[in-house]
UniProtKB/TrEMBL annotation:
Known EC number: 3.2.1.26
Pfam families the UniProt entry points to: Glyco_hydro_100 (PF12899)
Protein name, per record: Alkaline/neutral invertase
GO BP annotations listed: sucrose catabolic process
GO molecular function terms attached to this record: endo-alpha-N-acetylgalactosaminidase activity; sucrose alpha-glucosidase activity
GO CC term (a single one): chloroplast
Length: 654
């Protein structure tokens, strides 16, 4: 079936959507799932707590205890190191072998095995050779060469004075390496913040999925692939966790918001400890927010890993394919919704506190679109997933139509809304969502530049959230959810509103801030989200990397370069804070952590991409011709023609 037909079927409601039974796994999938579940371990006396464990057998004498390596590779007595790594890796290999048996050794296993062999020669040479072959082919397949059509590197580089900038970059690399967290001797992620001045750690000592994305990209662009591969595979195992909050379990494909490596005493043996992975799916998070963005970022990182390293064996693994499908099935499941956008609760993404973004926030929609495109590229064609791919394609078209059409505002569109008729009961209403023109806030009338526009924050019946949200807009550019014209207009707006959005430190998370009664009602009087602070109009240096990707995609890297230059004036002196406060980002955030890893990594990725713009391809997705065709079919199709009862294809014998 052509995509055009698919679109028409969506409109007519006759496309086979995923039914409940179809959401169940195929036999091979469920086998696989149960195998990966074997690696979980229930702790005695703790009903809900489960750990992914790695049985690091350690001696308890103080001078040879394994110390969990946050900050640097564990410095310990070599003989103990050896035994710890050995048992960790044996455990890993065992738990993964069922999963990878079909295609021989998974590279993750082989890679660890290779490391082992260099330590104590435990692993036979054949595995190691396999790994080396992968490496070789990676080098051959090196995706990015200097002959891409991206803008010349020199123009961007020349804009920077060299001396202090180099030292800022060096410092950033040092900090990023110090933030690495090790699990059984292998790097697995980066800690959210390492602020020695903070007395209240909360969960900033965890590895957050969304925070790791810029770290992972920085490592990929540096050619250091292991940490990203380990992160992808370990978080995948956490996906199938038994997760509950007050007896309720969220959907199976949910990825955690964060996880922690803990060293705990081994059951029944006081003298030994083990390292365990302890995830948080929101059941411990402040506000109990579900991290909808985690799985979407995971898919985006997985694609970037394959594209950058040339190692496609990770995305081809059966367990990884299953992981992708689980995330997709969770997102594509039928609900009550009339819209193709994902319906989520407040706080389900980077803004993980109540900020009035429940419903269909742009950030989630842009990540959803991006993840759908990435997944489409990676999913292995097989009979069992045809329905899923069909649903995915239909959703891509409907989602891009919906966002481009209904989320977009510029001067012209505001003027249209200003003149809207309301209470239109008809199939061809102009004001479909019954938006009352009085909703157009006075700030917007003043703020919207003549040249430029953006995608609004949220759309619900009788509600348009006109706030500008940076991440959602930037990722809509990067993922091609916004059209080419819209993408340029978004960058035009950022340039026109530089003093508001960039000011003294890039980049405002959203604009404007909620104040007064609005702040009281919408945030619930949240003292952390006071006007122009934190999520409520605060400025977040980590957003530099998404800004850079969007600018490079539109061939306008000089905008990002200018923002990086502003950041460089203060970011290191200010100790890499998590966020800045005030309208012009003049103060370090009230409760901002120092040495926030994604501030460091966001800066580094921006620098790496500006130095080598063609590398941004690992993050960018382009709309392909199938989608363009389907989209134009959709626009020209008359939705009314498709109405009427769903025709049944089933025959009944009476
Ligand atoms: C805050 C941010 C969230 C981030 C976390 C760890 O909760 O809102 O986006 O992931 O800190 O840095």
């Amino acid at each position: 079936m052509g995509t055009c037909d698919a679109v028409l079927q969506v409109l007519g409601g006759v496309v086979p959507r995923l039914s409940l039974s179809e959401k169940c796994f195929s036999i091979s999938d469920s086998n696989l799932l149960s195998k990966s579940l074997f690696t979980h371990r229930k702790k005695k006396g703790s009903k809900h707590m489960q750990f992914l464990h790695c049985s690091s057998l350690l001696r308890s004498s103080s001078n040879n205890r394994w110390v969990l390596g946050i900050g640097r590779a564990p410095h310990i007595n070599i003989s103990v190191h050896r035994s710890a790594v050995t048992s960790c890796n044996c455990q890993q290999a065992e738990s993964m072998s069922g999963i990878t048996s079909e295609n021989g050794n998974g590279t993750w296993y082989v890679d660890n095995a290779r490391k082992l062999s260099t330590i104590n020669g435990l692993v036979k040479g054949t595995d190691i050779l396999d790994f080396d072959k992968v490496r070789e082919s990676k080098e051959e397949n090196e995706v990015f060469t200097s002959n891409g059509n991206a803008p010349a590197v020199e123009t961007v580089r020349d804009a920077f004075p060299n001396v202090c900038v180099d030292s800022i970059e060096d410092e950033a690399w040092e900090l990023l390496r110090e933030s690495m967290v090790y699990y059984c001797g292998s790097p697995i992620g980066t800690i959210a913040a390492q602020d020695p001045t903070s007395s209240n750690v909360l969960n900033y000592d965890q590895i957050f999925i969304r925070d790791f994305i810029p770290s992972g990209i920085a490592f990929l662009l540096k050619g250091e692939y292991d940490i990203v591969r380990n992160f992808i595979l370990h978080t995948l195992q956490l996906q199938s966790w038994e997760k509950t909050m007050d007896c309720h379990s969220p959907g199976q494909g949910l990825m955690p918001a964060s996880f922690k490596v803990r060293t705990v005493p081994l059951d029944g043996d006081e003298s030994t400890t083990e390292e365990v992975l302890d995830p948080d799916f929101g059941e411990a998070a402040i506000g109990r927010v579900a991290p909808v963005d985690s799985g979407l970022w995971w898919i985006i990182l997985l694609r970037a890993y394959g594209k950058c390293s040339g190692d496609l064996t990770v995305q081809e693994r059966i367990d990884v394919q299953t992981g992708i499908k689980m995330i997709l099935r969770l997102c594509l499941a039928d609900g009550f919704d009339m819209f193709p956008t994902l319906l989520v609760t407040d706080g389900s993404c980077m803004i993980d506190r109540r900020m009035g973004i429940h419903g269909h926030p742009l950030e989630i929609q842009s990540l959803f679109y991006s993840a759908l495109l990435c997944a489409r590229e990676m999913l292995a064609p097989e009979d069992g997933s045809a329905d899923l791919i069909q649903a995915l394609n239909n959703r891509l078209v409907a989602l891009s139509f919906h966002i481009r059409e209904y989320y977009w505002i510029d001067m012209k569109k505001i003027n249209e809304i200003y003149r809207y008729k309301t209470e239109e009961y008809s199939y061809d209403a102009v004001n479909k969502f019954n938006i009352y023109p009085d909703q157009i806030s006075p700030w917007l009338v003043e703020w919207m530049p003549n040249k430029g526009g953006y995608l609004i924050g949220n759309l619900q019946p009788a509600h348009m959230d006109f706030r500008f949200f940076s991440l959602g807009n930037l990722w809509s550019v990067a993922s091609s959810l916004a059209t080419v014209d819209q993408s340029h207009a978004i960058l035009d707006l950022i340039e026109a509103k530089w003093a508001d959005l960039v000011a003294d430190m890039p980049l405002k998370i959203c604009y404007p801030a909620l104040e007064g009664q609005e702040w009281q009602i919408i945030t619930g009087c949240d003292p952390k989200n006071t006007p122009w602070s934190y999520h409520n109009g605060g400025s977040w240096p980590t957003l530099l990397w998404q800004l850079t990707v969007a600018c490079i995609k539109m061939n306008r890297p000089e905008i990002a370069a200018k923002a990086v230059e502003i950041a460089e004036k203060r970011i290191s002196k200010d100790k890499w804070p998590e966020y800045y406060d005030t309208k012009r980002a003049r103060f370090i955030g009230k409760q901002a952590r120092f040495f926030q890893t994604w501030s460091v990594a966001g800066y580094l990725v921006a620098k790496q991409l500006l130095a080598n713009p063609s590398a941004a391809k690992i993050l960018i997705t382009e709309e392909d011709s199938d989608l363009v065709n389907a989209f134009s079919c959709m626009i020209s199709a008359n939705p009314r023609r498709k109405r009427g009862p769903k025709r049944s294809t089933q025959t009944y014998i009476v």
